[in-house]
Write a structure and sequence with these properties.
Layout lengths: L3 H7 L49 E12 L5 H12 L9 E6 L2 E4 L6 E7 L2 H8 L2 H11 L3 E14 L10 E9 L6 H11 L8 E8 L11 E7 L2 H8 L2 H11 L3 E10 L9
Antiparallel strand pairs: 1-4, 1-5, 2-4, 3-9, 6-8, 6-9, 7-8
Subunit structure: Homodimer.
Pfam family, one: Dabb
Protein name: Stress-response A/B barrel domain-containing protein
């Protein structure tokens, strides 16, 4: 079972898994300490709590829906364009708060070579089900998606305290992570992992938003049970976090014994004009 000490250590690094290694690290990895000191040219007695501090936006409960697609080899580009544009057009449906369908920018780790992704957000499970069963959605799946894909997987979870905009701005870089937790571990492991993920955003300024949860629609998840979405302003901000190689390596070392599989991929939220590309 993932110890509380490991969970606390894990919270000092971004929850990204480019690869899961089965070998132990050859050098001692220690998390870098956080500098909590403050400097000021004013005497200490003049330092007061600011009355104009930025107010944190209220948290919202959101249902996250992620679908990964593997488009068939040699598929005509026009058919892929139609699939993406048709999926993005579903943003006009009332049960949809946000939707992005896009090519995968980088597949970092996956047993299946997925090529495209759909990410949508909904304000409740009932509205998510209304979207899933909507005739327009079913028509797009039947006419534009299924005929051109070889494989797909999907995870859905409830984010009870999503901070920030429900619709990530166009150009945002998004990292999606799916985790397959070993079956023989205690029930508390998933809760500890989720708690670690939720605390990451406060420690890394480059991450605009973190959402995570446990899948509630088994059958399309291929055994993966935990999912997370990390939103960055752009690819450069994402790469700056990735550059902290020592912390990433430490993180993999701490969690590898609790996982049977991982999927990690990045995509860029398309603009309305380019969403069909």
């Amino acid at each position: 079972m993932l110890s509380l000490r490991a969970a606390r250590s894990l919270s000092s690094s971004p929850f990204f898994f480019p690869h899961i290694s089965t070998s132990s690290p050859t050098h001692n990895l220690k998390p870098k300490p956080f500098n909590l000191s403050f400097s000021s040219s004013k005497p200490a007695t003049t330092l007061r709590m600011s009355t104009t501090t930025t107010t944190t936006p209220p948290a919202t409960t959101t249902v996250e829906h992620i679908v990964l697609f593997k488009v068939k080899d040699c598929t005509d580009q026009a058919k892929i364009t139609t699939m993406l544009s048709s999926l993005n057009a579903l943003s006009s449906l009332d049960p949809v708060l946000h939707i992005s369908a896009a090519p995968i920018h980088r597949l970092r780790s996956s047993p299946i070579p997925f090529t495209h992704i759909l990410h949508s957000r909904h304000s409740s499970k009932d509205l998510f089900q209304a979207y899933a069963s909507h005739p327009s959605h079913l028509a797009v799946v039947t006419d534009s998606v299924r005929p051109i894909i070889d494989d797909a997987m999907a995870l859905d979870w409830v984010a009870p305290d999503l901070q920030g905009p429900v619709a990530p701005p166009p150009g945002s870089a998004v990292r999606v992570t799916f985790l397959k937790v070993k079956e023989n571990l205690g029930d508390g492991v998933k809760g500890e992992i989720l708690g670690v993920i939720k605390g990451i955003k406060d420690r890394f300024g480059g991450i605009d938003q973190i959402s995570c949860g446990e899948n509630f629609t088994p059958g399309r998840d291929k055994g993966y049970s935990i999912a997370s979405v990390a939103v960055f302003q752009g690819l450069s901000e994402m790469e700056a976090v990735d550059a902290q190689e020592e912390l990433v390596n430490l993180q993999k070392y701490l969690v590898r014994d609790h996982l049977d599989g991982v999927v990690v991929l990045d995509f860029v939220v398309p603009s309305p004009q380019s969403s069909s590309l």
